[in-house]
Amino acid sequence: MIQSGDDLPQIILDSLDEAGITLEDGDILVLAQKIVSKSEGRLVNLAKIVPSPRACELAEKIQKDSRLVELILQESREVLRTRVGTIIVEHRLGFVCANAGIDHSNVAGDGTLQEEWVLLLPEDPDASANRIREQLETVSGCRLGVMIIDSHGRAWRNGVVGTAIGLSGLPGLVDLRGEGDLFGYTLRITMIAAADELAAAASLVMGQAAEGTPVVHVRGFPYHLREAKLQELLRPREQDLFR
Amino acid sequence: MIQSGDDLPQIILDSLDEAGITLEDGDILVLAQKIVSKSEGRLVNLAKIVPSPRACELAEKIQKDSRLVELILQESREVLRTRVGTIIVEHRLGFVCANAGIDHSNVAGDGTLQEEWVLLLPEDPDASANRIREQLETVSGCRLGVMIIDSHGRAWRNGVVGTAIGLSGLPGLVDLRGEGDLFGYTLRITMIAAADELAAAASLVMGQAAEGTPVVHVRGFPYHLREAKLQELLRPREQDLFR
Fold first, then answer.
1. Which pLDDT band holds residue A117 (cuts at 50, 70, 90)?
2. Do B209 and A181 touch (CB under 8 A)?
């Protein structure tokens, strides 16, 4: 039940304390986007949004609230595809997702009709992860990783999976080139999206509905921690065969 | 070091025994595609493949071994995209992947030059998972899930992630519609690709290079186990905006 302005790192530290967990070097905290966005005051009252003509036109075409479409367009660099109810965009943060990651679910306004409020993604999730990590590291004295995740749809496959949208202190990609395999071959697979694998794992633990487990504590991440940005997980559009 | 004809379920049972693990109802075993394919004798000697004219033409275009291209085409329903070294296909099993999942890595032939051998995916991974599960359930007396995974690239994002290619006894998708969230809203996210989230989690534990951890034992999967096929994870092509 995070509110705008809440001290999220302190809340996480208190929760770890309650759970009897002492942070150690190499631990990673995975945070649901929602709690980060809420703490950063990213709730928007739809009633105050005036849709542009472009938003109105698209909204009619896909049968969606024109004010919500306006926000989706504001949060995006480009519309890639549309279908009824859904706009697949390149988000201003660089990743491809549905409806710019804007969320009705689990969002409470300040007494106003709740359906009128929506939650935008954090302004800069890498920076959010950095900030949170810094505070957690200062208090714990440990070298940590922090990741912010959301649930994203995929091309080709049904259903959503937990996906990284912001990183601090852990690799997005792990490069296996030069490692060789059991028989000393050249590896077919050379780059593992380790952060996305961890995001999916954490998402399983979080659940999606009413369970309310928005922070997952990870110990034993099998790859070397290092500084990284989400960018390394994003395929440059000129190399993307599926845009 | 699995060989064709090996009794994979028995090897898994022996390994669990050695590790001091007793299977319980609800446990899931996640298997790397490689060991399943090897046990099923899916190694192919490239030296015995005669490429078709179509394979030769494509091989020249993308600078790839024409015999390997021939196998990729044989294992695929359709070529979706090509670039140097890579053919993105709809596999005959229905999913989209690079090079039909055919693998040079970690493959040993029978004394022949190893580079000449490649490993195809299992003939029918759902059926393989069923078979393995049946034997594990008979011996253990427990209700289990079995999943076979491979590492797949994605549209839009760099790096590969562990992905389900065969299922038995666990859901591919989990439908959250009607669950409601903390505030009783309609959920934005309604279908979770739970099997793929678990595949990614298991892949993290397996690693990709020389570690050799091809089976992951999962306890505490948070969703209800049920009968399912991989099919439910595959988006029908007419609903896929990114083909």
1. confident
2. yes
Domain ranges in chain A?
1-37+123-231, 43-120
pLDDT of A184 strictly over 90: no
- Topology (CATH) of A1-37+123-231: 60s Ribosomal Protein L30; Chain: A; (3.30.1330)
- By Cβ distance, the residue of B200, B233, B241 closest to A159 is B233
> Which residues lie closer than 8 Å to B223 by C-beta, 6 or more apart?
B170, B171, B174, B192, B194
Cβ separation of B159 and A205 shorter than 8 Å?
A: no
CA angle B211, B102, A240 (to 5 degrees): 95
Task: Indicate the DSSP class of residue A63.
Answer: T
Nearest Cα residue to B49 out of B34, B64, B33, B32: B64
The CATH fold assigned to B1-37+122-233 is: 60s Ribosomal Protein L30; Chain: A; (3.30.1330)
Interface touch A183/B107, C-beta < 8 Å: yes
Helix B53-62 to helix B66-74 angle (10° resolution) is 120
Host H or E run for residue B119: strand B117-119
Mean pLDDT, range A163-186, rounded to an integer: 80
In this prediction, residues A44-63 reach a mean pLDDT of: 95
Test A233 with B103 for CB contact under 8 angstroms. no
Best residue of A165, A189, A235 to probe chain B, by most B CBs closer than 10 Å = A189
- Paired tokens of B229: 């096929």
Contact B212, A183 (CB under 8 A): no
Q: Which residues contact A33 (CB under 8 A, 6 or more apart)?
A: A101, A121, A122, A125, A148, A149, A150, A165
Indicate the class that CATH gives domain B43-120: alpha beta
Angle at B54 between CA B49 and CA B57, to 5 degrees: 100
| Probe site for chain A from B88, B161, B211 (most A CB atoms < 10 A) | B161
Nearest to B119 by CA among B146, B99, B138: B99
What's A157's DSSP letter?
Answer: B
Query: Are the C-beta atoms of B27 and B21 separated by less than 8 Å?
Result: no
The alpha carbon of residue A30 is apart from the nearest alpha carbon of chain B, in Å, by 14
Interchain contact, A192 vs B160, CB within 8 Å: yes
Answer for the pair A113, A21: CB distance below 8 angstroms, yes or no. Answer: no
pTM summary value: 0.94
Query: Which band of pLDDT confidence, cut at 50, 70 and 90, is reported for residue A176?
Result: confident
pLDDT of B184 higher than 70: no
